[in-house]
Amino acid sequence: MSKILPLIGIVLLICLSPLAQAERLRIVSDDWAPYIYQDNGQPQGLHFEVASEVFKRLGVEVDWVFMPWKRCLAMVEQGQADGILGLFKLPEREAFVLFPHEPLSQVDFILFQSRARPHSVRTLDDLNGLTVGTSPGYNYSAEFNEAQGFRREPAPTHIANFGKLALGRIDLLVTDRHVGEYLLHKLHLDEQIEALPLLIDSKPQYLGLTRKPGREQLAQAFAEVLQHFKQEPAYEAIVQRYVGTPDTFPRTVEHHERSTR
Q1: pTM attached to this predicted model
Q2: Which residues contact 49 (CB under 8 A, 6 or more apart)?
Q3: Other CB atoms closer than 10 Å to residue 108's CB: what's the count?
Q4: DSSP label at 119?
Q5: Which domains does the chain have, with CATH numbers?
Q6: pLDDT tens by residue, 142-179
Q7: For strand 25-29 and strand 83-87, is the pairing parallel, antiparallel, or unpaired?
Q8: What is the DSSP code (8-state) at residue 214?
């Protein structure tokens, strides 16, 4: 595997301010397996491994800090963290966050239900009268957020949401396809819970960098090196390890700016 930094990445890195090169970045995120999570106190996951490799090639050291998602957002907005991993791009966030132009991955939000208590859900209107488990700070799509007729019930963790679904305390839950598949396997709920075909929304996730001097160059360098890394077998190996066949996981994705995480 070639680890030669693309020429444009080298030029951009040289242009970074001394402060941006010297400081150790503090990047925050919540547990969002298989993208980023903690295993025996150590960060793991698709986004973590990919971002870590890109930062390594740029010569930037990072401390990874886990906390609830709403607090992650507040820390970045208040300038108390240097960045956030797995962020959706929204116009209102660009006042305090820089988004590298290359995304980390594509997320598909779908619904999960208990096989013992199935529901026929083909559109959002079919959710009327039901209770859907959600996560604090997550806004899944404009249509989902604004739809009337069903109840949204947040849970403190994704695992708690699946537990409530298995116990019949909620009718459905919404989460990313890969997150749901990972947790079903981890919790041994594959035979009890299934995914529904309705796609709530699909959008790219990014590394978000807090706006500070020198961060524009770092964001551009990160994007260029990430784009180059996506063409290497090492990237496909990471994707295979966490979410399956690399062919189902795009190297580049289209922009969607309607939903938030």
Answers
A1: 0.81
A2: 238
A3: 16
A4: -
A5: 7-106+203-248 (3.40.190.10), 108-202 (3.40.190.10)
A6: 899 899 999 999 999 999 999 999 999 999 999 999 99
A7: parallel
A8: T
